[in-house]
Specification:
The protein has helices at about 40-55, 155-160, 220-235, 240-255, 255-265, 275-290; strands at about 20-25, 35, 60-65, 80, 85-100, 110, 120-125, 140-145, 145, 170-175, 200-205, 210-215. It is of the alpha+beta class.
Length: about 290
Amino acid sequence: MGKKAAAPAAPAAAPAEQFDMVFHVQLAHGSQTKQVRDFTNVQQLYENIAKAFDIATSDILYCTLNTHKIDMARLLGGQIGLDDFLFAHVKGTAGIAKVTKSGPALGLTISDNGAGFAFVKKIREGSIMAASSVKVGDHIQEINGTSLQGCRHFEVARMLKEIEIGSEFSVSLVSPKEGMTDVGARTAGGGSGTVAAGAGKKTLRMKKDGTAEVVEVNDVVEKLKTKIDDMLEAFVGIRDDELSGQIYDFAKAAAEADELGEKLDTNLSDFEFPDDFVLDVFELVEAGGK
């Protein structure tokens, strides 16, 4: 008998899509351009930036994407577009603001840099804080002499909320260092122009568990997450891109609002989300998915 013909070889699997994980960065007050790579979370990113510029990691307050300005709409969160240019804002002048809490709402939105520094993300016009010396972008270092090093933004927001109405309190602040004033926003090639943060179709998503992955940007989902972020600001006084994404994932998987509430109570109990927030998020995601 003749030899049996060999089966044709299976086609080789398509190679995995490769990305050059190199990001360009400058210090927001002015510097040469450096490159950073090999990081999977925000803390590692700050460490790599600090090493590149020979500064202390603890000097970095936060990063903005594609602009050196203190633009909270371009703030680095848990993900970076593969074309984004990073600007690191570092510690500048320190000061103390005295504030009288004349009402329950201070008009302040708090965020944090993912590495232990809370800062002011938004001040509502006409609010108590708008009449103080506190500015958007300021790092909140202490409240009434209590250090906030290592505190998350929701802890700082809660501390401010618990201050007795009618009392005066002090806030120790550190403003970002200022420098460049006439430099345009960066494009994906390092030129000048206007680029929306995360404008690239693929982004590097950094997770708090220390892993990172490249994900495709879905405009509909991103808009829903932004709306959840708006609701976080209204209900809790904070904004957090990664938290909004986590809440979206829970809502998308929930069959009803009660199931979402149980998920939030189990996994995010520190935030003490009210029932109205849970219901509004569930209805938003349910309607957005149709």
